[in-house]
Protein 1
Amino acid sequence: MAEVALLFPGQGAQQRGMATGLYGWAPVFTKVIDSVFGLMGTEGKRIRADWLGICSLIDIDDVRRAQPLLFAVDYALARMVLSWGVTPVALLGHSAGELVAATLAGVFTLEEAVRVLLGRVRAAANGPEGGMLAVAAGADDLLRYLTGDVAVAAVNGPRQTMLAGTTEHLRSVDERLRADDFTVRAVPARNPFHSPAMGPVGREAKRAVEKIPLRAPESLIYSGYTGFPLGAAEARDPEFWSRQLTDPVYFGPALDRLLARRELSLIEAGPGQTLTTFARRHRALRSGRSESIPLSPVHPDHEADRQALLAVADRFGASENLAATPIPVSEAAFVNGR
C-alpha cells in the first residue's frame, strides 16, 4: 500500500447528522469526539445535542455549529485512523481543516486548538453576513466579475474556484455569472470566509492565538494558505493563523506539491467527500499513481457511516476492532481522556 496522507475538509463540508452513525459504535471515535465537546464546556453540550438531533437550537450551516462540529468530526476520525497504526507522511487541511492538521502536528495542544476555534467562532458570529460560491472556472477567468467586496476565496483546482463576499455584492456577482452561463453553486456558509470583508473578524480572532505558545510542526503539513509546506516561522506567527479568515485557500496548489514526488493514499478524514472529489480530478489520481479514500459516505446515515468506515478499516486490518466494545449513547457523553 502507498504511503498515507490525511486530508481535512473545512467550512462547506458540514452535513446534518454527519458521522452520527459512528457515535457509540466506534469506541475511539466516540471517546475522542466527547473529549472535544468536553473542552468546549457548556457550549459543547449544546453542540453535541444539536449534532445528535436531541434538540434543534442552531442550524448546521451557522458558523456556531458548522466549524465546531467540523473540527470535532475531523479530529476524531483522524485519531481513529492513527489508532489503527497508520502513520501519515503528510497532512493537508482545507480552510478550518488546517487547524485540525496543526493540532495533530503539535502546533497546538487540543485544548489550545479548541480555544482558538471558539475565539474564531465568536468573532465570526458577529461578523458580516454573506456567503460563498463554487464556480466551475479558473480564478483568472473570474477576475472581471469581482465587484464590491467579492474576492477569490479558494483555488481548489484548475477549474474549481470559490468566491466570497457580503450578501448584496455576492448576489450581484452570482447573477452575472449565471447570465454568462457559468456553472455556479452556493456553498453552505453564512459569512464571506476568506475575503477582505472578514478583516475585523480576523483581527478579533487573533487575540486568542496571541495567548498561546505556538510551536513548530512535528509532522509535515502542506498549508492551504500558501500552497507549500508549513514552516516553523509561519506556525509560530499569530498573524498567520488570524489571516486564515481573510486569506484565500490554495488547496489545489498545495495538493499539486503533495502529489508531485510520491505515490499516496489520500484519506479524507471528515464528513462527505468534497476533498476526495477534488483530488480524483488531479492527474496523479486519474493516472492511477495515487488514490483518494473517503472515510465518510456522500450522504450520511447510520448504516452508510459504518459501512464506509469499515471498508477503509479493512484495508488496514483494523475492521475487527471498530465495534468490538460499542459504547451505548446514553453512557458515551463526555468520556474522559484525549
Protein 2
Amino acid sequence: MSQFVLGSGSAGRRMILENAGLDFEIRRPQVDEEALKAEFGQEEEMPIEDLALALARAKAEAVSKNENRPVLGADQILVCEGRVFSKPADLEEARRNLRYLRGRTHRLISALAVAERGGTVWTCVDEARMTMRNFSDAFLERYLRMVGENVLRSVGCYQIEGPGIQLFENVDGDWFTIIGLPILPFLDWLRERGLLPE
C-alpha cells in the first residue's frame, strides 16, 4: 500500500513527489474553489496566505473522508499588486494576465495540508517572489504559440521548468514552492510519522 494520497491533479506536484522516490496514489478532490475564493473575498482583513491554506485544507479533507491513509492537499495563489489570479479559462485570458504581470513582481504562495479521516493534522505555507521581464508583444505571441494549451495549466500561465523561464528576469524563492509543492517540510513530516526512514 502506498504511503499517502495526493489530493491534486497537478502534473508538477506529481513530478516532484515521483522524482523524490515517494510511493503515493492520486485522488482528484471535488472542491468548489471559486466558491471558497468568493467566501474569502468577503473577509477583507484575512491574509492571502490564509486563502491558499484554506484551499489546500479543503482538498485534503475532502479526499481523506474516504481514505485510511494521510492525504496531501495543495494549493497555490498568485497575487500581484493586490490582485489575486486564478488559472486562465482560455488563451485570451492568459494573454491578458501575462500582459498585466510583465514588468512586475508577483508573489506565489504555496500551501500544503495533510488530512486524516476528514481533519487536518499538518500544514505548511511558503512563498516565492517572481519578477517578469518587460517582454514585447511579439515575444508574448511567440511564447503562447510555443506552449499552447499548457498555458492554461498554471495560475501564472507558465511552467518555470519549461519555456516559461524565458518570461523572467528574477526569481526569489524555493524551486519546489514555485512548482507548487514545498517538499522539504513535507518530507520531514513523513519521517516524523515513520512513513520514511530517518
